[in-house]
Amino acid sequence: MNRVSGATGANGSGGDLLRIEGLKKYFPIRNAWKRRIGWLRALDDVSLTVAKGEILGVVGESGCGKSTLGKTVMGIHRPSGGRVVFEGNDITDTTPYEARSLRRDLQYTYQDPGASLDPRWKIGRSLDEPLVIHTNLDRAARRAAVRGILEAVGLPEGHLDLYPHEISGGQQRRVGLARILTLQPTLVVLDEPTSGLDVSVQATILNLFLDLQKQFDLTYVFISHDLAVVRMICDRVAVMYLGKVVELGRTEQVFDRPRHPYTQSLLAAIPQIGKGRITETFWLEGEPPDPGNLPSGCRFRTRCPRAEPRCADAVPPLVEHVAGQADACLLSAGG
Q1: How far apart are CA 12 and CA 52, in angstroms?
Q2: What gap in Å lies between CA 261 and CA 165, rounded to an integer?
Q3: How far does Cα 80 stand from its chain's mean position?
Q4: Ramachandran region of residue 262, left (φ > 0), alpha (ψ -120 to 50) or beta?
Q5: According to the model, what pLDDT value does residue 140 have?
């Protein structure tokens, strides 16, 4: 049986650049007296690998744990359990010094790029700061590096003298990319990188991602709720529901032959030009259960029309029922 999570990237370079093993992140639920009364299981035993040179998409409804996954991998959130192995090194519990050196190779882009830029600093200073912290380059060398990165993301040198509020949302995305690329990382976690952008700007940014991937030999973890964008850009896709991966495989497999009922419903909800939502195949109703009070067994069973009594007995594991595609559904083993 082939291991789906370690599949070779689209460019054929292969090798697990990032390995996530049983990763957990629980947030305490407190009452009015600040006493912990439970746990919110934002991530619960998530295992994935990312091959060097590939783009792994992570999709799901709001609150499924997508962004928490990215931030926990980055060390923004400390994991409650499990391991994160990057380039063969266990980075789960790094010291502040080790985390600082790690930032050169592992970078994260926030959903709101404007919020990650200091409004009091001009663009030039924001791009210069990572080089000051992480390199020993002199001022002239840093200036040359900043100009080169700005050109790579398609912005004129004149933008170095502008403030964040003086440029558009699409240009802020480019500046955010330029800021992390100054350190020449190997893996970039892109958290909703096209949200809030016009369709034409989205297309430009997506093409930029692909161009930069080739130019800088990048690997992406692409977190998004936009399934159409994920299908366009990603080599593999992981579908998350309430802190767990419920389906994982090559993008064309998952989109053309989804196996988990949750994935099937998500894909049925994608609007098609001239048709709108395909309501006859879209049956997902209601809101996900309270993540602080999860149902037993399969977490999707309370919304699944195929659910059987046995679905409440045990949490279904992520199993590769067909070559290259795994799902966590007790009912899909037969086909």
Answers
A1: 9
A2: 44
A3: 19
A4: alpha
A5: 94
- The answer to whether residues 113 and 172 touch, using CB atoms and an 8 Å cutoff, is yes
Q: Strands 236-241 and 219-223, how do they pair?
A: unpaired
- Domain map of the chain by residue range? 16-105+185-334, 115-184
Cβ atoms of residues 59 and 237 within 8 Å: yes
Instruction: Answer yes or no: is pLDDT of 1 > 70.
Output: no
Q: Residue 268: count other Cβ atoms within 10 Å of its Cβ.
A: 16
Class of domain 16-105+185-334: alpha beta
- For the stretch 39-63, pLDDT in tens is 999 999 999 999 999 999 999 998 8
Instruction: State the Cα–Cα distance between residues 36 and 30, nearest whole angstrom.
Output: 4
Q: What is the pTM of this model?
A: 0.87
Tell me how long the chain is.
335
In the chain, alpha helices (H): 66-74, 96-102, 123-134, 139-152, 169-181, 199-216, 227-233, 251-256, 261-268
Residue 62 token pair: 């709001």
Tens-digit pLDDT profile for residues 109-158 = 887 777 778 899 999 999 999 899 888 899 999 999 999 999 999 999 99
